[in-house]
Amino acid sequence: MSEQTPAPKKRSPRKKAVAKTVTKAAAGAAAPAAPAPLSGPTSEELDRLAGGAHHDPHSILGMHPTGDGVVVRALRPGAERVVARISGEEVPLSHVHAGVWEAAVPGGEMTDYRLDVTYHGTTYPADDPYRYLPTLGEVDLHLIGEGRHEQLWTVLGAHVRRYESLNGPVTGVSFAVWAPNARGVRVIGDFNGWDGSSHPMRVLGSSGVWELFVPDIGAGTHYKFAILGQDGAWREKADPMARRTEVPPLTASVVDDSDYTWNDDAWLE
């Protein structure tokens, strides 16, 4: 399993902090001249993605089939170099626009992969959040939409999850929050230096639920949601479904992974 990528930035103050977006100039400063993107997302879509206002980052990022193979895209603002490790091969990605990196793999097939990302001359192994399927099912989304879900705490909030993969077991945290009027949502925390520019979430259909699975983090992670309002302003919000929080006056939510077993079945019956 790949190790957690250390955040390239230090934690910023939390009071009314505004999520920062890497500008086009900054994103491309450390990269060679950007080639034209492969047929797919437009520059306008990539701008919305980098700005945190794209409703479905997964439709652009991650691995996607093409006519003669696959394409891999990663959102790594500020990176100097990004390489995908696919089936034992190293595939360099090119910076194409606003922190988005891309590489075509002719003849490639949809499979497991990992990234090597270079910041400030140091390379870190990383998993890609945008290669994972949603962690909420259609029934959950339907019940949430109707206001009839009776166990919201089991699907919203932050939950530690474990999966098997071709490259070994994966442990991470799924984040989900109901924000039906948001233009965009990012997850921020101590795992990304409180800068969510590389972790935009996707909205699941018309449910108003925004979701993202972040691999290589776990219990004890401090986090918040950065929400882009209709007025264009970013606001940091604690998780209303959080099972743990920091001690006031600190306000971050904390990922919890309880293994407590209840023994009151007989009493409930």
Number of strands: 16
Distance between the termini: 43 Å
* Overall CATH class of the largest domain: Mainly Beta
Shape: globular
The name of the CATH superfamily of the largest domain reads Immunoglobulins
- Just name the CATH architecture of the largest domain: Sandwich
Question: Could you describe the largest sheet, including whether it forms a barrel?
Answer: 7 strands, antiparallel
Secondary-structure class: mainly beta
Approximate helicity band: 10-25%
- Order of secondary-structure elements: HHEEEEEEEHEEEEEEEEEH
| DSSP helical segment count | 4
How much of the sequence lies in strands comes to 25-35%
Counted up, domains total: 2
CATH topology of the largest domain: Immunoglobulin-like
Residue windows where pLDDT falls under 50 for at least 5 positions: 1-36
In the sheet with the most strands, the strands line up as: 1-2-5-4-3-6-7
Compact summary:
The chain is 10% helix and 34% strand. The chain is mainly beta.
What can you see in these coordinates?
The chain has 269 residues and is mostly beta strands. It folds into two domains: 105 residues, Immunoglobulins (Immunoglobulin-like), CATH 2.60.40.10; 117 residues, Sandwich (Immunoglobulin-like), CATH 2.60.40. 10% of the residues lie in helices and 34% in strands. It is built from four helices and 16 strands. The protein has a seven-stranded antiparallel beta sheet. Strands 10, 13, 14, 15 and 16 form a five-stranded antiparallel beta sheet that branches. A hairpin with a 2-residue loop joins strand 6 and strand 7. The longest helix is centred in the middle third of the chain and has 9 residues. It starts with 23 loop residues before the first helix and ends with a helix. 39% of the residues are buried. The N terminus is likely disordered.
